[in-house]
Amino acid sequence: MTQMTVINTCEIINNAIVAHYILGHQLRAAAIEQNRGLPVRLYKNAQKCGLGKLIDFLKKNDQMTARAQEVDALHVDLHDAACGVAALIATDNFDAAIDELATGYYADAAAALTKALSHWKVEV
Question: What DSSP string describes 44-105?
Fold first, then answer.
């Protein structure tokens, strides 16, 4: 990897940590405010965000490391969990959504992804 690519990759990883943290807060706010107007299906598509685009680039260029593969799987898990939380909110299950964000699968997926991204950033 060239130095510029390493810098760009680290920036994408940093942005991904922040963006996925914000996603959790947006979902929590929607549950608390009982905002049912969430784009449930959009949360499912992990390839739309910056991290998803980086992973897609690495796959297309045969540059997937073991850590990148781990991050990819965890990233998809997080988006699946976000979609599940959004679906709970959309169906008026606000308390269940808040619980999921605090201690359920979403919380576990977010923690695992953040940890893997932090390790990956050090390895880049």
Answer: H-GGGSHHHHHHHHHHHTT---HHHHHHHHHHHHHHHHHHHHHHHHHTT-HHHHHHHHHHSH
Q: How far apart, in whole angstroms, are the C-alpha atoms of residue 87 and residue 66?
A: 32
Which pTM was predicted? 0.90
Q: What angle do CA 100, 72, 113 make, to 5 degrees?
A: 40
Phi, psi of 29 (to 5 degrees): -60, -40
Residues in the chain: 124
The Cα–Cα gap between 13 and 20 comes to 11
pLDDT digits (tens, 9 = 90+) for 41-94: 888 888 888 999 999 999 999 999 999 999 999 999 999 999 999 999 999 999
Give yes or no for a contact between 40 and 86, defined as CB atoms under 8 angstroms apart.
yes
pLDDT of residue 47: 86
